[in-house]
Amino acid sequence: MQILNYNFTKLILYLVLVLSVFILFFTASISYRKIVELTESEQNLIHKHLITAQLELLASDIKQAESNQRGFIITGDSTFVQTYRSAKNAAATSYQNLVQLLEKDELQKKNLLTLQNLQEDRFYYLDKNLQYSTDTLEKKLLLKRSMNAGKRTMDLLLAKINQMKNIELSLLQKRSKMYQEHAELSPKWIFISILFSLFIFICSFYKINRDLQNLKKANNQLMINKEIFEHSEQIAEISSWCWNLQSDTLTFSHNQYRMLGCEVHSFEPTTENFMEFVHPDDRHILHEGRQKILIDSSSTPVVSYFRIIRKDNNSLRYYKSIEKKIVDNYGNDIVIGINADITEQYLKDKIIEEKIFDLERSNNELSAFNHVASHDLQEPLRKVQTYISRIKERDFDQLNEKAKEYFTRVQIAANRMQKLIDDLLLFSRANKADKIFEHTDLQEIFDNAQVELAQLIEEKNARLQSTALPVIDAIPFQIQQLFNNLIGNSVKYARTHVAPVIQVSAQWLQADQIPFLHHFGKARFLELTFDDNGIGFDQQYADNIFKLFHRLHDDNSFTGTGIGLTICKKIVENHKGYIKAYGVKDQGATFKVYLPA
Amino acid sequence: MNQDAMHILLADDDEDDRLFFTDAIEEIKVRTVVHTVNDGVQLMDRLLNPEIRLPNLIFLDLNMPIKGGIECLNEIRSDKNLRDITIAIYSTSASQEDIEETFVKGANIYIKKPNDFSELKKILKEVISINWQYHTSGLNRENFLLSL
User: Fold this and answer.
1) Which structural domain range is residue B47 located in?
2) What's the whole-model pTM score?
3) Helix count (H) and strand count (E) of chain B?
4) Mean pLDDT of chain A, nearest integer
5) Separation CA A472–CA A480 (nearest Å)
6) Using the beta-carbon criterion (under 8 Å), do B115 and A379 form an inter-chain contact?
7) Phi first, then psi: what are they for A592, rounded to 5°?
8) CB nearest to B117's CB, from A379, A390, A418
9) What confidence category does residue A218 fall into, taking pLDDT thresholds of 50, 70 and 90?
């Protein structure tokens, strides 16, 4: 799962936001300025046009007045006078309009003053002309003069108007050029900044989208993990809770409710409500754990064990709880806890504990029995034997024949009992757990066995042979016992008139070469073979041979106790090995011991 | 009695064993003075009684009521007047633990009570005839357990 670097993303988002706001602001202000400029230019143009139009209107009004004055002079019709008056008024209005339009133009204002004088002059002459429009000669002469003067004024007036028009026109051309420049520049600016904004927005969109995708992926993984977690909790019979110390809010995992025998979210997750389920005798354990975790500044987990009572079936459950304090991404102190229902384990442990207790008790009984066997049983027996030996030494000859025979039988029985006790002690020693493995030289063990059995070997005229025997890790005195018993048996159970020949050999084998051990595969085993030419046994009894007190020969000529081979089996088992017996009646027996490397 | 005779003290709670012991000593015809006590308490009382001559050799049974042989061994070896007395452990058991423990605690020899009277005589003869002053210096685990 990809972990997002949220801090980095946050920084980028802030940067983009600031940049975008800046660019938008910039673009907006530029556009606003451009539009304002455009409007101004446009108004300027209109203004100039208005001035020009007004100037032309003024000229035309004056011309109108002139033409009406002429009409009156020629026709004498007084209606012309009337229209002349209205034309004059119109000219005055036009002039007033011009004054308003040119309020801010100092140069044109001066021109306007000149224009006003010329206009007044012109109307002065025109008014004069109207008065001179009678047929008297004197008046005609005056009229002629006045008309000439008027004509000159008129020419000057028109020239002034033209001059003013030209000024406006040149201004208009200048403005128009500026306007055009503005109009050309503004869209470019706006277009570029919009493109740039667009670019940034696309980038931001891409980035946000990608983060969103990652977030979605992470969310998805989180959801899967949550499912896994829930599932695991149910299978493992554990639950979790989380306690925010800042906001003092507690949340339980779904399984917490189930483990308490409730429906999910069936009660408010609070400490008090949880305590209701805790066995009254154990509530203090939870309180103490709480105190410990609140006081402790380190985040060492606090483990506590307590019991709860399930709501659904009132059964007692054993809980193990592990609490730990952590700090979350917002800097809040949070206590997280895991509750595990360990009832099954607890009960199993209890059973095992009981069994161990029983086992220990029976072990103690066994060692008490050992003590009884080694001391209390031996003591009277030894005395019996000692008294027998004293009688035999001093008073045997005084007995009659029958008594002598019985007495000898008593001695044999006592000796046999002695042997049984000795063997039983050996057996219990083989059971005891002094299992210290050491390097053990089997050749040395074989030689020791020969020394120990020397008397018997001599008696039976036995011959012992061995191949080279290795050094292995074993319990030395037990392996010695094994050799003594097996070789001793072979010497003891010899055929009458056949000197025993005993062959001991060893070889390393792989488990898959040994029929009943093939499941160990490539593991190595040492195969020890003890082969003799003695009385052997029927193979069908091979498995009984290792049973305690089990004897294959009830013949009194063989003095076995039925314990020796049981001890052998025990010793081999102590070494995690196997022992097998193969016999052919009246031909010999072979014992094979397999010891793991 | 003869001043040169060896003074032997047997501590054993078993009447039969005490009988075997005194009979055997009598029969081997070595100049000895034998005393017997029935348990560890009697043994220590006797040893700590200044009016009674200390024995040259103590035969000590391990399993005795009230005060056992190991306890007596400890007390004898930690008493500066008694520590030089030769002690032969004389027990029914020949368990490895007992042999090891008595050796470590300073017994001189370990005798497993035999089940044959003639063997008992042989053993006692052997033990009594050992020159203990010489023997003690060569004391080791191998020859601690007496075997004939």
Assistant:
1) 6-137
2) 0.51
3) 6, 5
4) 85
5) 13
6) no
7) -115, 130
8) A390
9) very high
